[in-house]
Amino acid sequence: MPRPACLYLLDEPHVRVGDGDVRHDLAPSRPALLLLYLACRGEWVSREALAALFWPESPEEEARHNLRVVLHRARALPWATALEVAREQVRFGIPTDVAGFRRALGQADWEGALRLHRRPFLQDFPLHDVPTLEDWAALERESLLEAWQQAARHQAEALQQQAQYAEAARLLGEILRQNLLSEDILQDYLRSAYLAGQREAALKVYERFAGELKQELGLEPMRATLELAQALRRSEPLKAAPPKAPPKIPLEVLHPPRLVGREAEQARLRACSALLVRGEPGVGKSRLLQEVFPQAPLLQSREGLENVPFYAVLEYLKANLESLPDLGPYREDLARLLPELYPGFTPPPAEPGSAKARLLEALARALAPAGRLLFDDLQWADEGTLELLLYLHSRGQPWVGAYRTHEVGPALARAREALRGSGVEELALEPLEAASVQALLADLIGVEEGPPVFAGWLHGQTGGNPFFALETLKALFENGVLRAEGGQWRTDLDEVTRDYSELQIPPKVAEVIRRRVGRLSEPALRVVQAASVVGEGFGSKLLAGVTGLSEWAVLEGVEEAETLGLVQSAKFTHDLIRQGVYGDLPSSRRAMLHRTVAQSLSEADPAVRARHYQAAGDLEQASRLWEEAAEATPDAAVAVGLLRKALETNTDPQRKVELELHLIQQLGGSGQYEEGKNRLEALLQKPLSVSQRASALALLAGVYVQNMQVALAEPILNDLEQNYPLDLLDEHAQVTVGLLRKSWHFQRGEYEQALAMARRLAEIYAKRPDPATRFDLVLLKNDMGAQLTQLGRFDEARRELEEAFALAQALNSRHGKISCMSNLVYYWIVRGEPAHILAPARAVLAEDPAYEEGRTDNLEVNLGTACLRLERWEEAIGHYEAVRQKGRHPMFGLLARTRLFGLYHQVGQPEKAHRALEEALTFLPKTAHLPTRAILLTLALQHGTPEERALVQQAVEPLDRTRLPREIRAQLEAAEAAKG
User: pLDDT means per 10 residues in the chain (980 residues)?
Assistant: First the structure.
């Protein structure tokens, strides 16, 4: 099909026809004038109107006759094939540059509009002395020229922002040729021309303007214009031009008055205790949560801070320090994460086995007064926060969480499974339907019913995503395509469109955001870019330091961004906006901003600073701070994640080995023994220093012991004993290996060796005054007291035990107090005065009823033994049964079942006694504790049936009696003598 003709009236009037693009210049004839008029109208025009327009002075019949003649002649023109003539009306449907110009204006395509408008409409084209046609052409010319001036002004502003001053000056100069007395245009022209190196030309235009202003209006130029001209004459640097006022977007679009189309979802939220809401970015999850629970605190996780322990929770607590409740015995647990909560208070080191449980309880108590909690952006939450959700649900505290459907990582996936298992349901938030988009428009405009055709177009363009819909509306308002007039919203297409398909918006919301950000002044843009790097909670002081602007300039920039709907209340109105701004930053600028932010946040959480240094490419600093954050957290699982980041960013091979060892220790602390074992085995295949290899072997043996694989641990321990003297190791390795050796000697009844190792470690600890080492010293002195008791050196033992307990009290360490009291009870048992210590020991045991039972095994067992010595059988059984049912430590589990075996025989319950024995025998391979084996054999000889005695002798023999404590050896020998 041949290409239709196209009529050009914003150029030298001509027509281009066919595929060969043949040009036909327009002759000023009546047929040509009739066709160009009809082409501009683009619709059916009555014969009566045409006759009156072209022959206004002629009688009607004559005018109609003339029209018929002209139409006949017009048909003969080579470009008139589209002419349609009906009985009473005529139409000429041909593309025109005028129609293209208007479409470009409707799409805010200023550059395209200027390409089409080459000269004023029908300029200097003779209209054959047809006054009415001349009047029409003059009106068209004026309106199109005014529109061209607006387009040229917009394009000049864009060129100025791109520093294309010469092209901007050319456009502004053309505007001035049409209207020299436009003084605001003149000011822009003078600036652009001067910056383009056209100083002399600029001054000539100014002189011409000043003369004409004086002659025509009797006025002098405005003060700003005079100052600008003076600056040009003196070749001075120009002051920064004031920022252009951004297009006005209705407040309702920036801040929609209410949530629409979510009635069912709101009802479900109100009815739930705990619920997870999932949906795509921009679908309205955050708005839904805050609409339903406007008074509930919003705890928002942040991208890039997934490894910062409880980031969102701590940000909320920091903002509400004054209203936090008394945490009682859990004060120290929260103080480790939030030191500003208790100024001047130094909490003792965390107790490894119970640190996580106690911290969750502390956080739950701190959050309890807030009532319902809102957790947003859970796809970026750390593992601790996700565990806290489950813990809060178990306590009955209501909450709602939200996350992005397709951004679920492993931690959130595990948390969802656990929450579902606890009865927490999920709500999928879908995009709005077309009717809801129409209702949204009705709310925004302030009318009963939204425009249905426009609503259908908007729904189709945005897929019903509320954020995308609002961003599209903002873009249309910013571009001048959509405007609010007289309580209505209007476009130039309202009267002629069928479905608004002529409207065009950027295909991606990122481009919508990019265009809006492009309207910011340079200072405001600098502020918004820095804020996108900082993230939520950016303050004017921080941004001033990052941007090099004054705080006042920062506040003005933030206000400008708020006017455009980009930010609100020190955060971006949507994270997609922040991501869009951040993504458009040049990589070098982004890295520089991250580094500056990291340096400015000197008092911030080390993990927050580490993230910025990592993004800045400063991996050495990042690794150091990730490690610092790991050392600061009491949660081993969180420390694992932080150490993984430290390893990821470390570039020093030797340091990487140290970090790997540290990570493996934390894996053990968080119960991830299998991964720890695998990493150790891999590490031991690499070249290591003597100290590094010794530490790795000690940790591997510790993993085997924890997994109750004593047979695998023993050869490693023998290897360490024979081939790795402590004197050859560095201090860290000495402690790692020494602690393992001490524990192993103690379990095997080698008390002199255990005591010697403890003293060696105490000398190392004495060089470290930090709280963690003081806590280690408590445990060490406590062990020394126990070993001295075993050796019968009672005065030394009592001194060490009482010093250890006093130090634990000073540190306010429950673990320390319980461990020390356990050995004090044993001390008084051996001294034959157990009644002396019962009351203080039970007070320590009852100090915290919620304390994890695994840390009370030793104290429970020793209290049971004290009651046994005092012949309080039922009390003794109660203590031993507590360990049997709740205990965690294999050695104490074996000892409790051993004692229950003897006690149940003693009180006449042989079935229970035999069951306790069977359980004790299953525990024997899990621990090498020699004294407990001897006690089991002693009780079997004293109370057991022949069958039970045979089972025990087979399980514990051969038994090296020379390594037993004197008292236990004497009891065994007496029992053996009694049995002959």
Answer: 76 84 85 91 89 90 91 89 89 88 76 89 83 87 81 85 88 85 85 89 89 84 88 80 66 84 92 92 90 93 86 91 85 82 71 77 93 94 93 94 88 92 92 91 89 87 84 82 82 58 62 78 91 82 87 90 82 78 88 90 85 91 89 77 89 87 80 83 88 85 73 81 82 81 77 82 76 75 85 89 89 82 91 90 75 66 91 91 82 87 89 89 79 87 88 85 82 85
As to burial, measured by CB atoms within 10 angstroms (0-12 exposed, 13-18 middle, 19+ buried), residue 777 is: buried
Together in a domain, 406 and 337: yes
Q: Which strand ranges, in their side-by-side order, compose the sheet holding 22-25?
A: 6-8, 14-17, 22-25
CA-to-CA distance for 745 and 736, rounded, in angstroms? 15
Among 428, 450, 479, residue at a domain's last position: 428
End-to-end CA distance of the chain: 121
Do both 862 and 898 map to the same domain? no
Residue at which a domain ends, from 79, 106, 140: 140
451 found inside a domain: yes
Residues 842 and 950 in one domain: no
Secondary structure E strands in 26-67: 45-46
DSSP structure class, residue 379: G
φ, ψ of residue 586 in degrees (nearest 5): -60, 145
Q: Are 169 and 189 in contact (CB under 8 A)?
A: yes
DSSP 8-state secondary structure symbol assigned to residue 96? B
- What are the backbone angles phi and psi of residue 478, rounded to the nearest 5°? -65, -40
Instruction: Say how far apart CA 698 and CA 691 lie, in whole Å.
Output: 11
Q: Cβ distance 16 to 8 under 8 Å?
A: yes
Which DSSP symbol is given to 235?
Answer: T
The total domain count for the chain is 6
Pair (214, 282) in one structural domain: no
Whether 116 maps to a domain, the answer reads yes
Percentage helix, strand, coil for the chain under 3-state DSSP, each rounded to 5: 65, 5, 30
2: preceding bond cis by omega (within 30 degrees): no
Structure tokens at 814: 């429950």
Q: Are residues 421 and 286 part of one domain?
A: yes
Beta strands in 555-673 (DSSP E): 567-568, 571-572
- Tell whether 785 is covered by a domain: yes
Residues 219 and 341 in one domain: no
Q: How many CB atoms lie within 10 A of CB 274?
A: 21
Q: How big is the chain by its Cα radius of gyration, in Å?
A: 43
The two structure tokens encoding residue 936: 């089991």
- Write b or e for each residue in 316-338: b if 16 or more Cβ atoms lie within 10 A of its Cβ, otherwise e: bbeeeeeebeebebbbbbbbbbb
pTM to 2 decimal places: 0.56
Instruction: Pull the structure tokens for residue 423.
Output: 């009865």
Q: Which amino acid does the sequence have at 597?
A: V
What is the residue range of 316's domain? Answer: 274-428
Alpha-carbon distance of 172 to 152, in angstroms, equals 7
Give every CB contact of residue 470 below 8 A, 6+ residues apart in sequence: 253, 256
Vertex 673, ends 850 and 757: CA angle to 5°?
80
What CATH number has the domain bearing residue 374? 3.40.50
CA-nearest of 864, 869, 851, 861 to 815 is: 851
Paired tokens of 170: 């050319």
> 505 near 482, Cβ under 8 Å?
no
How many angstroms from the chain centroid is the CA of residue 327? Answer: 29
- What is the Cα–Cα distance from 476 to 470, expressed in whole angstroms? 10
**Taking a C-beta distance cutoff of 8 angstroms, is the pair 643, 666 a contact?**
yes
Residues 177 and 117 in one domain: no
Kindly list the distances between the CA atom of residue 426 and the CA atoms of 312, 314, 403, in Å, as whole numbers in the listed order: 21, 26, 11
- Tokens describing residue 591: 């890295």
Do 279 and 423 lie in one domain? The reply is yes
Give the CATH number of the domain where residue 220 resides.
1.25.40.10
Any domain includes 367:
yes
CA distances from 743 to 343, 692, 751, 891 (A): 37, 20, 10, 12
